[in-house]
Amino acid sequence: MKIAVVGSGYVGLVTGACLAEVGFEVSCIDIDEAKIAKMKQGEAPIYEPGLDNILKTNIEKGRLQFYTDLKLVLDEVEVVFSAVGTPPDEDGSADLQYVLEVARTIGKYMNSYKLIITKSTVPVGTANLVKKTVHEELKKRGLEIPFDVASNPEFLKEGEAVNDFLRPDRIVVGVESERAKAIFKKLYNPFVLNGHPIIFTDIASAEMIKYAANAMLATRISFMNDIANLCEIVGANVDMVRKGIGSDPRIGAKFLNAGTGYGGSCLPKDVKALIKTAEKNNYSLEVLKAVEQVNEKQKSILFNKLDAFYNHDLKGKKIAVLGLAFKPNTDDMREAPSLVLIDCLLKAGCEVYAYDPVAINEAKRKIGDRIHYYNSCEETLDNADALLVVTEWHEFRTLNPEKLVLQMRKPVIFDGRNIYDETAMRKAGVTYFGIGR
Fold this sequence. Notes:
Helix content is 43%, strand content 14%. It is of the alpha/beta class. The model has no long low-confidence stretch (mean pLDDT 95).
């Protein structure tokens, strides 16, 4: 089976590379010529563990190719994945212009049956718009060519995306015809050998499942951050609370860690889009509105603690920030808590010194020269008035508290991810603040 994947961003590139890895012939399409040139050399334009090796291997085997125009391969393929961006519009709703442009291109140039699969996260009803757009283009040509549309949302975690695709815990597929269903069974047969089935639904349900899943994850994060803030006020320890409620099988332990709020390309965008979808249908998602408010407030939590510690006098203080990406194992800084934190620090007159294992280049693009960048924890901490830990990279977990006391001007840590043993830190002479502790 020959497949085209339109959009070679995070979702599209992982999808294309992993489909090629199991033996399909895949053409990845993107209008960015520089990105295509880079990928042809086996270099991924994003940081994702394991992706570069898969790219190089499948390019060498001839199973993975890259183009800037879908028309060049449309006659050869039976399946077209649409994995283009759906950025938030000004009102928070998903912008579907790129999704519909893919549909228009297919309608203009298809000459045989196609299964058009939306991989991007899109609002309920998008498949109907895609179908209508393709029909309109075929009508202009005076043709009636059979095709199917389907929804196949992705559930990839940044930093673990390759493994998530190759060993999925579930595959959700929304279809309307038996022909499309049969193609999906063939397409995903190599990926369900771990015993996890394909969940077939109607298209609207598949579109909703993706949003509902991300909304639930966001809700758990904001809930625990709210509880953590209350724990500090009443003298409870959120780590103990998390273990206590996480042991309940009805709740479970995942996504119950307190921190500085969620970020990235999915949760913030999808929560906003789902709220907007509800509003367009005359319904108000009050829980998700609160989730969003709590999260925005939580992004300033470390600054508020630091500001209170120094009695609102931060001008000229050297502040070390460890972690810029919104989570470990990625260079993604979209909606990252670090951006809000750094903005607050700069407005307060601080000198900001930052380090991240992979996100420095992305930080320079987003923040510019307003802060200082270093290549190690040690350089960043030297003579600092405080350390703020924003992202829980593994290398940050092994900081020696005795060395911190000697290295920093004032050994005080604001641990935004609760990765340190507070007793050990305090015993060594480090002033320690966590979240909810």
